[in-house]
Amino acid sequence: MKIKRKIVYITPKLLGAVITLLVLVSCYKLEDLTPNFEDASSTVVYDLPGDTLATDGWEERFETGDLYLRQRYYNARWTDSIRFVSQTNEVINAAEGADVNPVGKTPDEWKAEVLVRERAIRWLKEAISHPATVSDNEAYLNTSNKRRYIRRSNSWYQMDIIPKSSADNAENITINWRGFLSTPPNNPSKGWAYRDNENFRVYLYNGTAWELMTSNANYNENKDFVQVQYSKSGKEAGKYSMFLYRFKDGWQHFIRDAADSTRYLKTADWDLAFTGEMNSTIFLNNGRNKIGPSTGSPITKSSLIMYEYGYDFMDEAPEDEFFDSRPADNLLISYASQYGPGVNSWYEYGSTFIAKPFPYKAYYLRLEQPDGSYLYGKLQLISMYKGAPEVLTDANWPSPFMTFRFFIQKDGSRNLKTKK
Fold first, then answer.
1. Cα angle at 38 between 275 and 245, to 5 degrees?
2. Is 289 exposed, middle or buried (CB count within 10 Å of its CB: 0-12, 13-18, 19+)?
3. Burial of 343 (0-12, 13-18, 19+ CB in 10 A)
4. 162, 151 in Cβ contact below 8 A?
5. Which of 167, 196, 229, 393 is the most buried (most CB within 10 A)?
6. pLDDT by residue (tens digit) across 227-271?
7. Tens digits of per-residue pLDDT, 259-281?
């Protein structure tokens, strides 16, 4: 069999067109949409660890082997791990800390005071019902239902924590919400619930005693009223301790107790305070701010202005009159949620409990110096999750690990251009 070959002749005109096409193809490259925050001048801080005491291993459904639960009340800045499976020679007390006020104490100090109270429990004889005459901190085993109860704040609390899957039939669970209270309401009826102002936990009256609430509830059709989660390896935790940050040298310091507050907060030694849940509410150091940690600081002229159109387009800082017009109590960066827009928000927080940063928001800065002069800069907060993932669907992703970038113009000018 003969193979026929076809010869194609390329004219000079056709050859030129082919070469032009090849050059165009080789020069064209798809745009790389991967976030890249590096530039010639800015400082990028990746994964600066926040207070990571209560961040890992939490799921909505109770599973065999789970040992801990936690409640996250929708507007509270307190979360803790509550172990509900006892160890040898130990009694789990659901009312733990109900009469120990944590205000002004570190989590460790509060816990130590709670343990003193726990060791002082006075055990009464077993009984088929609540004893008629009893004093606070006395407890007994109920032989009819095998539950243990303790007298606290002139009320009975169920010591045993009975886990329930918070994801099951939450829309069918209704409660009679009684509010934020320092002591449980008098003459309760079954279904009453309140949040204890002493230990920040939510209790439900079951008809016999107050028990720790272990399910989400439909309160005014708000499914996020109390979120309950379970874990096999939950970490004991309390408030997220704030930490301070200084632009000049990247100094970071946690405020763990009253001594730290006295030593550091009312000074000019820091620029930003990362506070609140997930260390995500950020205050600029300004002593005129009456709602933040800097109250009384000698720094009184530092200021910030939110900009919504992109860090890279912030080429020049505004005039001083714009910084001067900012109310001192607005010198913070918070978040937006279903409960409101927040102040200078840098992320939104919804029912998934996953923070989603706004991609273009950034902040002009004016920093007062010890000699009274100003340095101008800009700041963008990028992520509070480890590795700064662009898209995140896992609510248990390690956090807070703060990623942000900033530029401070050292020559005192308003020139903030960082990208050619």
1. 25
2. buried
3. middle
4. no
5. 229
6. 788 877 665 444 578 899 999 999 999 887 778 888 999 999 999
7. 888 899 999 999 999 998 889 99
